[in-house]
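Re: [help] complex structure
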Amino acid sequence: MGYMIGVDVGGTFTDFSVFDLDTGRLINYKDSSTPEDPSRAIVKGVQDILAQEKADADQVSYLAHGTTVGTNALIEKKGAKLGLITTEGFKDTMEIGNQKRPSLYDLQAQKPVSLIPSGCNMGVKERILYNGGIDTPLDEEDARRVIRFLKHKGVQAIAVCTLFSFINPAHERRIKELIEEEFPEAYTTISSDLAPEFREYSRMSTTVLNCYLGPVMKKYVHNFQQSLKDIGVQVEPYITQSNGSIISIKETIDCPIKCAVSGPSAGVVAATFIGRQCGASKVITFDMGGTSADISLIENYSPKVSNERLVEGYPARIPMINIITIGAGGGSIARIDEGNALKVGPESAGAVPGPACYGRGGTQPVVTDANIVLGKLNQNRILGGRMKVHLEKAYQALDEYICAKSSLNREEAANGIITVVNSNMVRAVRSVSVEKGYDVREFSLMAFGGAGPLHACEVAQELGIREVIIPPHPGTLCSLGLLLADTKFDLSRTNILDATKENILLFNNEFSDMLLQGAKALDREGIVQERRIFECSIDMRYQRQNFEINIPVASGVLTEETLEKALSDFHAEHKRSYGYCNENAPVQFVSYRVSAIGIIDKPEMEAKPMEPEAPLPKPIEVRRVLYQNCTEYLESPVYSRDDLLPGQSISGPCICEQMDTTLVVPPKWVLKVDRYGNIVIHYNEVR
Amino acid sequence: MVHNRPDTVTVEVIRNLLMSVAEETYGIIIRSAYSTNMKERRDVCTAVIDPDGNSVAQVESLTALLGSMLSVVPNIYEKFGRENIHPGDMFIVNDPFHGGGNHLPDIVLAAPAFCGDTLVGWVANIAHHADIGGKVPGSSSGDAVSLFQEGIRIPLVRIREDGKLNQSVMDMLLVNSRVPQERYGDLTAQMSANLIGIQRLQDAYERYGDVLISCMSELIEYSERRIRAAVAKLPDGEYSYTDYMDGCGEKYPDPLPIKVKITVRGNQMEVDFTGSAQQLEAPINVPWPCTKADVFYSVKAMLGPDIPANEGINRAIKVIAPKGCILNPTEPSPIGCQIDTSQRVPDAIFGALAPLLPEQIVTAGNGACTTTLLSGKVRQDSDEVFIFHEVIAGGGGACWQYDGLSGIQVNMTNTSNMPIEATEIEFPHLLARRNELKEDSGGPGYFRGGLGIQRELEILEDNVLYTGLGDRHKIHPWGLKGGKEGAGGGFYRVAADGAVTHLSNKVTSLPMMEHDIVRVITPGAGGYGDPLNRDIQKVLQDVIECKVSVEGARRDYGVVIIGNEYDGYQIDEGATEAMRQELRR
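Output below.
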């Protein structure tokens, strides 16, 4: 037995979720982050927790860590100095990209900053054909010349991506061998290892991003690993990936891009877990913080994954939980623009100067100011009483920036700010749900982050969603997610073939190779046979289309029967996504995917007895609150969440305050606490 | 209809909602269409239009397609009468002389959304189809003399009526394309997008009622207020500029003027093209809705990039072009390559206002829509044909604070390139040998113009037909404030034995043999400010990045670079100072 620890490093705080395997207790712990070396805060936190628990370091039986080191290196442009080797004649592929300009109308908008230093993008003589045949053999002398040149230039890493390497990796592999001979200390990634799929710009960009992060991540994780050893922690730590799984340090070093934007993915993993506790298989997650909101969709208890997204302006072709981020949070600034429209965000007041009501120098009204004025947030002290509120400063900001420039009075301005920011959220939720063919009304909205529960019910109401779920600790869902993840390797191959039974052997060849590769990866992680799951899927399209839909297929050997099933699933999914399908049209299989999953032990959360008859706690106060679509303030009791017992139920309007957030329950909504401490709120029109 | 003025908060909510409808329908077409043009190059635009026919919300995709979105519903009302529009209708059109907006390959589909008897708005989309018949595969030829040679003309007709497909119209269209299955897939995607858009508008009306419609009007007025405020800040007066087209192929070898006179009076702007070239018996005439879209784009980009693109912007602008000129041709003038001329319209307008807006205007970019069409038989023993259609970007303009971007689409076009790997998988008859930035093509300046691209495609079998369409081969992109012009583009055939033939800017159906190479060079962009004052370190960086040659650095910037690629380049500062003084004299 012992302790399982999940650590999520944020910009300001490092959050810990600790599960005591002996007692089944979940402990939350928080400490300031140490941005210059994030592992310092982790090590200190682990020591503090162990001291508090009077435990020894060797009792830590599991430790997983979501790191922002990669993300920060990308944002601050502090990655490795790298060189690129590609096919001769194509050295500018990264600069040309998809040749679209960054903004349709803004004539001076700029492209993302180049990740490759001047003159370090090089072509070598070689060319592979679309069918894997060799047009021009690799000129090894030319390759050596280029490698020596890059070494001479002082690069730390080399990205190799040549045309059609996804179908025939021979040249890339040989170049890698030559790098090992000529320049063994270089960090090298070849595209056919990392992302063997077609479309050269995406593949190249993924490879370049990986090399950019490689040396930085390598240094960080080695340091992190050593610091943990130094304090006596025996277990090998895990790192989270953007697909929501955890992975060993060794894999992190080879594929840092897979961890680069993992930040919010652990939160979605935890949301999935809480969805299971509540029996909610379809969930929209709504994580709203100070500057932005992250939104994703969970169906059948599994988060939707996308296979490509932009990272700092460059495409990264790796599976990631599909999370969309919009610039709308508690700190988003409201203003009246030149055409007299009320706009909120994406500019944010951040922590400094912060909302006007914090009295730290902020003068412009932000979403938090509006919530204070409306009575949704405590008008005296917030953040568990740590922060004093200056209500008059919020009034002043609204008067000066909104009321003076429009016909809105103070209440209309504050309520309008919430309406507009909620409509931005609604648009984002629609883009992951309605626009993908889902009926959003069938989903529950799970709100977390500091500001999610404040807005959740009103956003849900606007969308026609009738159930809102608030986890027990909405501020620490990401670190909780780290205790709930499995190990997962995502493998993929491209081989465009007609989806006919004549090709079954070929499909199975693709899969059997990857299944073997996946098994080897799980061997390396020490996952035993009975804890392995292999999930197979195929990216399909109608012949002549060029966007694929990913369809899960039965794991193992594809048969005529399972092929039929896969095809009918594809037609159905096409109809759901795009409104039509064509069952007579020929279908193509494009890419084949295998996820090799190793199941990791997870904590079992303790269910508490239900006490529906227990008397309701006494409200802390009764506050006047102005809700959306209401014309006047309503007297609303304010409860401390800690006082609520499982099974208890309270009708809105009411407010629940807790350390890390405030929950707003508008009229017609009824909250109920479940046996795990989740608050489930239902819309009840008749009452 | 009279509505109460909606409050500013509701308007913002409705704006979000309508944009999400436009974006959703756009996504459906991009992801489910069949032809490369739509799926990879994204030659598609979608919009929501109010019941009076004013465009309200448009997806930010392609500016060239704006014109159709602004005019299609008014044209439907004019032809059929508003009272004759019914639930379940969907209209189709491509002929700009009969209700369409662009050239014939751009097919518009528009459909009204009704709740009961109330018309609550329209959804419309336009997409470029790879082939709709005509004298050459891909429909757009460089030597058409009449619209009748450019494909099937579709006047405004109903493709769906009472909720059902009009199979006769569909059959008529399909039989006129060389690739009918592809047309079927693409049109289905377009129709499907509209049907979903209708559903979304109906849901919105059920939720908001007539407020939805009054918000649409308010959104248009919002854009109008913003653009008028921006126009009002310009000093009243007349501002003129004349830019030129190269000509058109071998038939019209001489430069063709695009002349503009812009009159600013208060918060209204008049843009007059009187004095521009007469219409030609060549396909570079610009149909009237396109000309208006070109002006719309230019004004918005200069004065309010963030103003929502809708009819409101149009209200502040009056456009004049005499009937019979290249920018307002008579029926049935050929228009297949109108985009090259359309690209010259923003150049002329920016040229006219550059003295007024030195911090807004960028120098002339590649100013073309450099198109490559290759077609042939899929297999020698079959009649099935392939049509490869690609537009290659070039230099982007420099401005008062930045170098121009290299290898990007400018102004009226913004299509993606097709990945080389996607190209060769789909067209195994082609082999790309090069796709790189063209050294020294960026106009020298204190801020350098962006570079053009050099693309080389080897043809792998006999008798593949090459059509190349472009401009700014002879008349190069201009610079500003002492910046020099960018390099021009060019089309070449490189035979297997190495012999190079320089081709005109409108090549039509030139047969290519096995191992011939089509070499396309796209124009760069003009520089901004005096190149002799450019930071010498930036010149050195350009040399290291192969953007400027050692000779170019000396000739254009007066910077003397010594050393070599392997050991590193350095600046000879003494020689540079002397050279710059010499050149300044």
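Chain A touches chain B through 72 residues (CB under 8 Å).
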